[in-house]
Amino acid sequence: MTDSSITISLKLFAAYQEAYNCEQLTLQLPPNTPVVAVLDRLVGEHPELERWRPVTRFAVNLQFVSADTPLQHGDEVVLIPPVSGG
């Protein structure tokens, strides 16, 4: 029997954290979903985040990755927008 979804934890920072008013989300996704699909989902739920799409970097399990990196069950994903001091 194969699982039809994977579970990932998503750490939120800066604009993403403000939009969701929390520091972390748990998401169910199809297996091998590319990490960019997580950003697509967040922008779909909060269109005001669209402005951050071109400058957001991705990390999976504490390693910077490309947007097309496939996710696996249990991965920790971080979307990293530009952060300014203040």
Automatic annotation (TrEMBL):
GO biological process: Mo-molybdopterin cofactor biosynthetic process
One Gene Ontology term of the molecular function aspect: nucleotide binding
GO cellular component: molybdopterin adenylyltransferase complex
Highest taxon, organism lineage: Bacteria
Keyword entries, A-Z: Nucleotide-binding
Pfam families, alphabetized: ThiS (PF02597)
Membrane-crossing residue ranges in chain numbering: none
Family recorded in the similarity comment: Belongs to the MoaD family.
Protein name: Molybdopterin synthase sulfur carrier subunit
Organism: Oxynema aestuarii AP17
Phylogenetic lineage: Bacteria, Bacillati, Cyanobacteriota, Cyanophyceae, Oscillatoriophycideae
